[in-house]
Amino acid sequence: MARESSRVVKSERFGWRDVPAATYKEDGEHFKGITRHTLLGERDEERALGFVTRYFEVQPGGYSSLERHEHPHAVVILRGRGRVILGERVHEVAPFDCVYVSPGAFHQFHAGDEPLGFLCVVNRVRDRPRLPSDEEFEALARDPAVRDLARR
Amino acid sequence: MARESSRVVKSERFGWRDVPAATYKEDGEHFKGITRHTLLGERDEERALGFVTRYFEVQPGGYSSLERHEHPHAVVILRGRGRVILGERVHEVAPFDCVYVSPGAFHQFHAGDEPLGFLCVVNRVRDRPRLPSDEEFEALARDPAVRDLARR
Questions:
Q1: Cα–Cα 20 to 30 A to A92, which of A6, A20, A119, B108?
Q2: H/E run at residue B145
Q3: B138 CB near a chain A CB, below 8 Å?
Q4: CA dihedral defined by A108, B42, A80, A136, rounded to 10 degrees?
Q5: Which of A100, A124, A139 is closest, CB to CB, to B46?
Q6: Which of A104, A72, A55, A123 is nearest to A64 (CA)?
Q7: To the nearest 10°, the Cα dihedral for B87, B104, B51, A12?
Q8: Mutate which: A4, A8, A131, vs B, most B CBs within 10 A
Q9: CB-CB neighbours of B46 under 10 Å
Q10: pTM for the whole structure
Q11: What's the pLDDT at A4?
Q12: Longest dimension (CA), chain A
């Protein structure tokens, strides 16, 4: 009746038991101070989920890549306050705010003075992110708030 | 470049701006004290998401339906502590624990002394839930912890 693969993944202060934090190269070229935990949906026995639930944490002063792709994101902020570049605008975000990043929209998450943690759910099958060209970056940076915040 | 449909849904103490709480009949036959907010993915312009992100909140002493279906659930607890019947076992859950409910597994979420709030992400296309038959209920209730907790 009940299939074997149901499970609970226990949380421990924004870590999860048996879920390693993916370590990115610290202070990469286009991102800074960010880790990723893949929580649900990546395992083979969870492929009935058409999506993958990941948790990202950005350290104070850090940011994710400024990028876009054809797959959308469904984001729910879990901790901290920060700002997100979403297309050509900057939004403040706080716990439990939700963000829809539509196909093709450039986006970048910036932590404030404390770690910014958020769930980011994506379709299981998805395309690779692309960084902005110089022209695209200039178009984004027409908005002064975006220009001040954006890192690439 | 950026498509129009990107958006931020602002949270206000476990409510969300412009997101109505779906009200169930209070104290229904097989659930009690539960509301649902559909946060992301249900709108037509968000159909590029293959999934829908909902937030459920169960009031103290309340519970969701004991049910199963072929679509799986990806659950992340956001507030409160409670217990979940997952197949033939009972698990304690607390904030940021994740639960994978596999296809066909009976499940029921029970709040403890405070509201239990959780995200529940599902495939956009999914089947309807089914309640247990008498035989199925008896099979589940072989476990004493399930028997004590289950409501139907």
A1: A20
A2: helix B144-149
A3: no
A4: 10
A5: A100
A6: A55
A7: 20
A8: A8
A9: 19
A10: 0.94
A11: 66
A12: 58
Write out the two tokens for B15.
């409510």
Give residue A148's identity as a one-letter amino acid code. Answer: D
Tokens of A60: 């104070």
The answer to whether the Cβ–Cβ distance between B100 and A9 falls below 8 Å is yes
Q: CB–CB of B46/B5 below 8 Å?
A: yes
Cβ pair A93, A84 in contact under 8 A: yes
Identify the CA nearest to B150 among candidates B122, B108, B116: B108
State which H helix or E strand residue B7 sits in: strand B7-9
Q: What is the ipTM of this complex?
A: 0.93
Find tokens 């299939």 and name the residue: A3
CB neighbourhood size of B41 (10 A): 23
B5 in contact with A, Cβ within 8 Å = yes
Q: Which residues contact A44 (CB under 8 A, 6 or more apart)?
A: none
CA-based nearest residue to B1, from A111, A87, A76: A87
Locus of tokens 């970056």:
A137
* Burial class of residue A28 in the structure, from the number of CB atoms within 10 Å of its CB (0-12 exposed, 13-18 middle, 19+ buried): exposed
What is the maximum alpha-carbon separation in chain B?
Answer: 58
User: Is residue A54 a contact partner of residue A122, using CB atoms and an 8 Å limit?
Assistant: yes
Cα Rg of chain B (Å, integer): 16
CB-CB contact of A24 with B117 (8 Å)? no
Q: What is the pLDDT of residues B17-40, one digit of tens each?
A: 989 888 765 566 678 899 999 999
* Contact of A146 with A91, CB cutoff 8 Å: no
How far, in Å, are A8, A104, A148, B87, B134 from residue A1 at the CA level? 18, 42, 56, 8, 13
